[in-house]
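Schema walk-through. Below, the input block comes first and the output block second. Nothing else is stored per chain. Lengths vary across the set, and this one has 283 residues.
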Amino acid sequence: MSYRDVLGQNASWRLQQRVLPGSVWSQQVYGTLLVEQLTARSHARWLDAGCGHRILAQGLEHLEDAAVSSAETVVGMDPSATAMAQHRNIRNRTCAFLDKLPFADGSFDVISCYMVVEHLADPVVCFREIHRVLAPGGVAIFHTPNLWHYMVFLKHKIGRILPRALTTRLIRIAEEREEDDIFKTFYRLNTTSRVSRMAAELGFMMERQRFIPSPQPFFNFFLPAAFVQMLITRAMKELRLQSLESTMLVLLRKPSSHSVAPELTSATRGHQHVQAIPNVVTK
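--- output ---
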């Protein structure tokens, strides 16, 4: 038997099924909410900001495909053209940063950010842009680490002390990610109070907020440490300390306007979006 089967990821996953039965993958919760919001609109215009090379992790392709098929217009945006060129199911893609979106006001009904917010140096500026390109009544959905979770807080503090090369190596081991898929983190919008202040400042309504346990222990590569984390997660659930779970899922809504333009036809919408999407990268 290999190390993975005895003390590594495979062993941790088997134990997790016993210690935390019925655990729901946080990405699955995020993907389900995304599909729900897209299907609620007959002609949804969707921007996946920070799209990388896929929307959800491997194993959730059915949710990815359901989300894409539910929207009339889908645009992927990321600063890395290399990552976007490998995207599995978004065809309209553009290179850009969140602090300066190359889209017209009110271009989208749904904007999603998966594990992006923690990397924003100035999240207020970025969400001001998100608010601008959202149509009245549109929603911004983001899934990001919760800074008040003990492991996120510890990783954030240690990451400010240790050399970046060492922290990158630890993340590569723990999460099995390539080095070019690991970005600097700031955690400047990763608490409830900070999200609330930002929403109030920019005119968003915070419609939903949910705290979700991590899909796997950070130390899942070493069974004894992973077991301790599983016990802590179970205790937090039994003590109803959900606000301290590892990730937060937030839905912000831009208030509807009484002066909204008349409903556009499907053909008009499609033409408008082609004009609003510059520098499209296609595979």
